[in-house]
Design brief:
The protein is built from eleven helices and six strands. It is an alpha/beta fold. The protein folds into two domains: about 180 residues, Rossmann fold (3-Layer(aba) Sandwich); about 60 residues, no CATH class. Helix 4 packs parallel to helix 6. The protein starts with a strand and ends with a helix. The relative contact order is 0.17. The chain binds adenosine-5'-triphosphate (ATP) and magnesium ion. The site of magnesium ion (MG) has 4 residues, from helix 2.
Length: about 250
């Protein structure tokens, strides 16, 4: 139910953009608070500070990548391992089974000395509507999960990082329980321009001092859609046409 995330899956990816950078720093600071082995005089519990992180925002803005970079930081700095909770393992159709699966998985994590629990697409565990038993079962899942989050004090050396792109569907009471609750926004055009330069470099194309027109940059909502543009041209064998287009779209 609980899968240790292998070191090889935690390679760090350079993220472009101030907000991504700031969010990584904030999460890493929380990691320091939870896992640093110094004497603490500060009463984190009093301030309801927990090792809990929720990243939300539209698809492709870098939520999973941010989480991965931070898990890599925890592993490299403190030797702390991360674990993945698999949604499809938790949600099964038997009445009551999902709640038991959730309970067992959280217990398994609880018994570790330390660790980070990573739940990508956390909405799926908490609001999946396909479960038999519907509402009552989902409510019990949420209650089980919330109870766990409530007990997750800083001194337990445990963290929880969740990501979602359907934030509106997450229960309000649960949202409040995340010490870092951050919407990752679409990148700015100048950040997209920087990412274009990186992609060009990776594609082995040299265009000096790239300054793309904003109309062109506006076509791309996220860095992922820029990657998609390159992906398509690479697979279509049309890198030369792509280069011409990019040159044409340069100021
Ligand atoms: N700011 C960024 N800088 C560099 N690369 C980025 C950035 N944002 C996204 N990417 C790249 O775009 C791809 C998608 O990012 P990621 O999977 O982290 O997005 P996500 O927000 O988790 O999306 P989803 O909601 O679909 O899960 C990855 O290859 C990632 O490296
Ligand atoms: Mg993701």
């Amino acid at each position: 139910m609980l899968y240790r995330i292998d070191e090889s899956d935690l390679h760090e990816t350079k993220l472009i953009g101030k907000q991504c950078e700031q969010t990584v720093n904030d999460i890493n600071h929380l990691i320091d608070i939870v896992f640093e082995k110094n004497e603490r005089r500060l009463n984190y519990n009093f301030f309801d500070i927990k090792g809990t992180v929720l990243l939300h925002g539209i698809a492709g803005v870098g939520k999973t990548t941010i989480a991965r970079n931070c898990m890599s930081y925890a592993l490299n700095k403190y030797g702390v391992e991360s674990y993945r909770l698999d949604v499809s393992d938790i949600i099964v159709s038997g009445l009551g089974e999902s709640v038991k699966n959730m309970h067992d998985t959280l217990n398994e994590f609880e018994e570790l000395n330390e660790g980070i629990l990573f739940i990508d697409e956390i909405d799926k565990v908490l609001i999946d509507r396909t479960v038999v038993g519907e509402l009552s079962e989902m409510k019990r899942l949420l209650i089980e999960f919330m109870g766990y989050v409530d007990n997750l004090t800083v001194d337990k050396k445990k963290m929880l990082i969740g990501c979602t792109n359907v934030y509106e569907q997450i229960d309000e009471a649960l949202k409040r329980r995340f010490s870092i609750n951050e919407e990752i926004h679409r990148p700015l055009n100048e950040e997209k321009n920087d990412f274009f330069s990186i992609c060009l470099l990776e594609a082995g194309i040299h265009i000096p001092a790239l300054g793309l027109k904003s109309d062109f940059l506006n076509r791309f909502e996220t860095m992922d859609s820029i990657k998609g543009y390159f992906r398509k041209n690479i697979l279509d064998g049309s890198l030369d046409q792509m280069k011409t287009e990019i040159e044409h779209e340069t100021i």
